[in-house]
Amino acid sequence: MFIAALDQGTTSTRFMIFDHGGRVVAVAQEEHEQIFPQPGWVEHDPAEIWRRIQDVIDGGLEKAGIAAADLAAIGITNQRETAVMWDRTTGEAVHNAIVWQDTRTADLVTELGAEGGQDRFRPKTGLPLATYFAGPKVRWMLDNVDGLAARAESGDILFGTMDSFVLWHLTGGPSGGVHVTDVTNASRTLLMDLETLDWDDELLAAVGVPRAVLPEIRSSSEVYGTAVGSAAGVPIAGILGDQQAALFGQACYDVGEAKNTYGTGCFMLLNTGEQLVPSVSGLLTTVGYQLGGEPAVYALEGSIAIAGALVQWLRDNLGLIESAPEVEALAATVDDNGGVYFVPAFSGLFAPYWRSDARGVIAGLTRYATKGHIARAVLEATAWQTREVLDAMRSDSGVDLTALKVDGGMVENELLMQYQADVLGVPVIRPTVSETTALGAAYAAGLATGFWAGFDDLRGNWGEDKRWTPAMAETDRDREYAEWKKAVTRTFDWV
Fold first, then answer.
1. What are 242-298's pLDDT values in tens digits?
2. Residue 341 forms beta bridges with which residues?
3. What is the pTM of this model?
4. Alpha carbons 39 and 105: distance in angstroms, whole number
5. 10 Å Cβ neighbour count for 70?
6. For residue 488, with 0-12 CB atoms within 10 Å meaning exposed, 13-18 middle and 19 or more buried, which class applies?
7. How far apart are CA 464 and CA 402, in angstroms?
8. Which of 167, 211, 142 is nearest to 78 (CA)?
9. Parallel, antiparallel, or unpaired: how do β-strands 83-87 and 180-182 relate?
């Protein structure tokens, strides 16, 4: 038997099949269109994503040479704060999905913060008021799609983050689809109370979201329903937001263990156990995972909006490289950044600043600067943003990190990984399976169905592939960090 994960990400959807040792058996992946109706707006077409999901399930089973009956379960992981609303009867979306990077709710977020400030909802939700989160996106659709508010109140419309949309369609859609989300995704809406793990009436009233549209909140590891279609009969038994899935896939099950995922954005999570740790340093308090009826495990998270997306921008918008991996060779043509710093605040700054008014800057340019220096500044931006998040984690948790487990697409970039170790001053460790997001979702589904017996099984699957140790002098690190901080201040108050 095998286990599978459906990974519905920001730029693509993947179906990955794993064996009992956590090794990859097959992968099928399809990209979907990024829609930019106007500056700061980012959308996806849910119908296109559903087509891609069906394609990758078929493709993954074919590549593995197995039938759906050979799968013990499927886990779902997803881009988290992206919001979609759809018709309960037809399954059709009432508007394109509004992506987590989208900033159209800036005025609404400001309005919500007029009473109580940016931290108005933080005591209940662990989150600051920001355009990042899903709840205000729902309110925007209710306010801007003709007739939607009345249909929502009457129960004709369903809302979900992408996990709910995927699960509902996978389990039958209009014919008995299950409308459920898990605690990790619900904790990213500004609508769930972190302690009760349920939707909160005060939050719903304040943001303006009717309870009738909401999915039921369940744990991250249990059987929610059974698939129809190509995977007919397979239990869907795990749901984790993508960053929590990576924490789970990296076997960070003990308090103080942390991972950093380098994808479209960059996300560091630190396991704080069953204790809710409020952040005073600009981090998010979030649900790490919950297994069946056990207590929830919480995490501190530092979210960075733009990491790998900056390399894509260098490729697609500027044409400085033809493929993303080329950025490493281009950056290696120079010995240092030449005094150039790139702060990619394309959709504002996330942790630890939470500044929706910030926009991207390239600072320190002189006639000496070349495209090699810009490429190097692009990679260094990810490393410095991660350093800022780690400093905030140390401050909030009192935990000194001894090493950082890393995963995601950018961990193949050796120049970046070495620089990351240099600026953090701790070793950076890449696991043998770097696609830990899908692996975490598979683990959650496998635990729920008995495919794996417990954490010891999963820890046994984790292996170290490569380790980078710091090689930068502390004086150099401090000097360059000060320059980075100065560049960050230049992004403030732009909008």
1. 999 999 999 999 888 889 989 888 889 999 999 899 988 889 999 999 999 999 999
2. 363
3. 0.87
4. 13
5. 15
6. buried
7. 15
8. 167
9. unpaired
